[in-house]
What does this fold into?
Amino acid sequence: MAGAIVIAGSDPQVSDHKIRISTASDGWDRWRSGMASIPVLGCSPIARTAEAMKSAGLTGISILGPTSWGEKNGIRSSEEQAWLLAADELKTCKEKNVDAVVITRTGHYIECEWQSLLEQHGKYGEVASRAFDSEGPLDLWVVDPSRFCVDGDLLAMLQVTKVAEWAVEGYVNRLAGARDFRRFVTDIFSSRCRVRPYATEVRPGVWVADGAQIARNARVVAPAYIGHGVKILDDCLITRGSTVEANSYVDFGTAIEDSSVLPDTYVGIGLDLSHSIVDGDEIVNLRHEVRLRISDPVVMRRHFSKAQHDPHSVTENERDCVLFH
Amino acid sequence: MLTSGPVVIMQLPEELNVKEVDHFMQEVGPLLESNRPRIVLECSQVHSMESAGVEMLLRCLEEVLKRDGDLKLAALSSEAEVILELMRVARVFETFPTSEEAVRSFNAIPADAIPQDAPWYSTLFGDLGALKQAS
It folds into this structure.
């Protein structure tokens, strides 16, 4: 029997350094912490990792640490707390005689054969095994709970324990910044990884989730993804690998090219958004390598409810939309 | 007779919000009403720009063009570039890496503005040469 502990990391990787509280000021492309918990084509990398583990037969998967869901619901948790909880969880696994526990920290996204990883760990006979790729160590370990001594700081223990090295052959994205995030999107569109969009492919390369409304004279050019509850108004253009995540609203005549609009974001009238990631009132532009906050709410803003985001209310503007079920 | 004054370089403030726009318009207003105004707006300090700021730039451009002048932007910060592109007005303005280049551009057509290999260029001047020879 094998279990799993998934730590929602706030930093891209902790392999060679300690956890920092926030990476927000580290550079233009580190626009927010916990990138692995941001939905990408309908589902976050952290949820996709947990799903893959479940399908591989791992049981008792615990997801610990700061997540977007937690932030949204006012639950403040730190990564340090998550590691402490993980140590307790590992002790519980020991009591339950669990053979092996996968510990992964999803600052990054890794695709691997989980069963093969567990088999290899068994063959190596070490207390712990650690995954590596061509760029170095990854925050993915397999631990034998009966032999692994947890005394306080689990992360520190993992870093000093002698490990067997396991080479990951599958897709790895370290999600270290905005560029990696956009690369992940394009890798999904071009099937470079196993991830599939959480939506229906309404025509080749165009995925539209349930409840999305796209005006009849808006144009969506493949590859593109329109998330759940999204509204795209008249004369908009969504093109070149763009994604509009759940409950976002793209107002009249706006063109979105090679960009990601994150959930609950209002994008104003007649804009030309390209090579960017937009999250509420924050925009990260990959071409100019700059991150800025848009103070003008008619241009961009966060919105959570219909009443809040829809400046035109429900009028004839929205009647001529195609609703996807 | 058309006369034109010197090129005036003005520095845009760090934040182009409604308040700053009003303040800036008071400064630039008399200049816009002069004969053939030639203005360079230096944008290196601009870190944020609301839609009021973009409207102000367009209004200034409209005013100078009415009086047969011109307005150019120089040393655009990355933030200013992103906002102008986002608002679809980046192509409306002539932009230059530095104020000096923007000032120089008032007195000369940049060489790269005319594509030398354009078919009309060689044909037109080739024909002119032939005409001269014939005459």
